[in-house]
């Protein structure tokens, strides 16, 4: 696998099939993003191209629910060994944990997480490259895949606690759910699905613990090896973006996550020609640009999401980096 923003190329098969079935011009769109209309599981594709395909398909078909509808019928075999192993998981929890632990074998610059807080479980997904935007179709596709795993274990009558998306309303509500089964929250920190934690113990149809366990260990080990083979700056950037607004993003905190001392982290970044402060500023400003492009998000909320102590500190940092205030950028961006 390459470093950075990639995805297993065969993941594009389902979006391609969906576009073809609806009468879309598959060849033209594949040429536009520079990919093969018959993608192989042995190759990788730029994540930007993958995301762009579903965005362009939804626009061409005038179908804002395109991503969710593709994810709802997604063939897990199209993401290679991880997808095949997930289908052998003995329980829903085992399936979701494998997705979390081995996701680097499917997609880079991204994360799937699974958390349990009391009696509520939350599975979340996020692309960690702020330059890949818009990406609402990809977010809905992936969340539909994850919701589909819950469907497999629980049947179609279960009710989520909440479905959340990092993007704003996009007109897909009528397609996404056959009925208003739960609250949908937009402009969230990440894309997530909340459901009763007891469901994690539900058996998966076709699961086989004996064949799953060795696959689980091997895939998680390989994903960890891929992660550690990446440049330190790439790993730092990923952890900063994943933690902004949720956890500490100081250099010492990130060094602990990476399993090294603050001094070692500083030295390794110096060897790669960068500094921690530069990476932190780059991540914050990249996300800020995207959030400021949405007038519904208050500047104070942008500052909070990015971990600044207050709005004034954010405005100072933004002006220093961009040569204008956040409000000036927003006016310039939204100017007709």
From TrEMBL:
Superkingdom, natural source: Bacteria
UniProtKB keywords: DNA-binding, Transcription, Transcription regulation
Record field: transmembrane: none
SMART domains documented for this protein: HTH_ARAC
Entry GO MF terms: DNA-binding transcription factor activity; transcription cis-regulatory region binding
One GO CC annotation: cytosol
Name used for this protein in its record: AraC family transcriptional regulator ligand-binding domain-containing protein
Organism: Kaustia mangrovi
